[in-house]
Amino acid sequence: MITSSYSPSGWRHRLRRGRASGRLSAVLLLLPPALILFSLFVILPLADAAYYSLFDWNGYAAPSDFVGAQNYQRLLGHSIFHTALWNTAQLVIVSLLVQLPLALGLALLIYRKTPTNALFRLVFFLPYILAEVAAGLIWSFVFDGEYGVTAQLFHALDMESVYILAERQWAFAAIMTVIVWKYFGFHMMIYIAALQGVPKDLVEAARLEGAGPWQIARHVQVPMIKHAIVVSVFFALIGSLQIFDIIIPLTNGGPSNSTHTIVTYLYTFGLTRLKIGFGSAAAIFLFVIAMLIAFFYQRHTTAKEGT
Amino acid sequence: MLSHPRKTLMIVSVATLLGSAQSAMADTTIRVMRVEISQVEKDYYAEIAREFEKSHPGVTIELDYLSNEAYKSKLPTLLQSDQRPDIFYSWGGEALKEKVEAGFVKDLTAAMQDGWQARFPDSAIDAFTIDGKIYGAPLYVTEVGLWTNTALTEKAGVDVDAIDTWQDFLDAVTTLKKAGVTPIVVGAKDGWPMHFYWGSLATRLAGQQGFKTAKAGEGEGFAAPPFVQAGEKLKQLADLEPFQPGFMATTYERASGMFGDGKAAFHLMGDWDYLPSKQRSVSGEGVPDEDLRFISFPSVEGGQGNEATFGGLNGWAVTHDAPEMAVTFLKSLLSLENQREAAKRGIFVPIVKGAEKALATPYGRKVARDIEQASYHQIFLDHDLGVSVGATVNDISTDIAQGVTSPQEAAERVEEAWQFR
To answer: CA of A163, closest CA in chain B: separation in Å?
Structure first.
């Protein structure tokens, strides 16, 4: 997009034009506050974290015990960190392959403005409004093997109750269920807004040509809301990387550290154990992953828009 | 970050301070910070503070409480700011050592002379001694033991008095299981309740000397045989499947309530669980006192620490630039009368010698007796070895209980954490 206008003459021309229209003064006036805030609250802490990650530091006094890349070495060699990475990857996969299709399907069913649809929209959107910690707590009661809904279900079927959150092989599946439940409504809303923007005559025309609802969705509506899908994919990716406050009330990373994501890992092994240097190394690692995703996403989408 | 009400409060208090400074002598405010506690204990401190303010005009005592987790994570930052408290609640061991090494803690060695030190047993002073200097004053002691529901053990035909060794305990568990009674509740989701098993076993097996050697890094450190054996013994227990179903999803609070409801025969927990367990039970009454016993952790054959106790030792530390009055207040807070009062109200098991006679319950008196007779009091491993190693011990204990790690590997993980602490 921008690359085309980067020839020197074009730049000078733009500058001249900008000065004439007073745009330059607007830039000079409005950019510094944002820039200062950004450097103060984003760049600076980031640089700090990168600096701390080279120290063995417990948060007391100033960091003095320089250890070089040791924190990174330990991080990459830590089996629980591998689990956390894999769990985060699983979250990404489930978000993209389960959550988004579910949201899209529901959006296609209820995007028209009718009273019933409004009710459904409200119900599906409700989980997203709930605070994460509250949602985590509610679900921890649902999964409770003693008094929870699942327990009653098992009892009704005359089966031995299962303590889902205590089982290493099921706990993370349970967490993923909660996360899909919590966020599909958000993506659904994005799609609904986009679907309502699709010109009605296009859909009408397709119908007159004899296309069924599935074909209309597949060949008219989904291509028309591609931009919304691209945005929601980005939200889903970044959101999966940041999952934290749902896991803490549900399992707190357990049983035996099998349900950590990168963020709960850095919280548990960095902050609560007062290994600030080590935690910073994990944070830098997470930042690099997020950067890479943002970079490839940007490249991918701009490349597509260019063609 | 300061919230607005706090800010206003500060401005107001600074303003009043300035105002009164002109009229009277310089006022002293002593800020005390403690982990969140029951209302009964808060009232107790408030009364002491009021008494002290009355006898020392111009002195104001401010009592602040933070929840347990918030306290642990906020304290490092607080200590570095000028909002730091003058007196703060502290555990002994590595946790205190970190703060001492960073220069935040006042050396109380000199102040401890003139008879103050003599109030406390040596083992209690030891826990707050770092490199020969005393950096804290003990407040109370806790012991971990088996809370036992004798109604259930009798029903299953287990003689509680005959439980002496680890093998006896394992046999009791087997008998209870056969009788259809859940032998043990444990709040393993929180990690630390399970660490009580590994920690108690390691204390029995390694003893004071074993821990000293491991901490000094001699030999195999925490990968040495006693610590591996602690894991093996825990595995023996876990293999019997003695815990309530879903124990990995149970918190301490839930487990404590379950024991109060009579859901299991044993609950390995600190003596402090006496009232909480009753309050958390459905009836609010818990296990009636005539069915409730608090028995010592079983001994282990060939162990070096069968005479030792395992538990907590909690006290106070003073920050480096606190006013002298803070030490004076601390001395008065830890007086025999105040400690006796706490014992009488059943708030905690006091540490000052002679105060334990006022203890109201037989459980408290047993703890006081155990501590007095013990050769050594091993404090909780997260306090003794630091948060990071402590958290690793929590992890390996639950891992062994679930059978996902071997005792050998577990001990090696503790040693690794100790080296990287």
So the answer is: 5
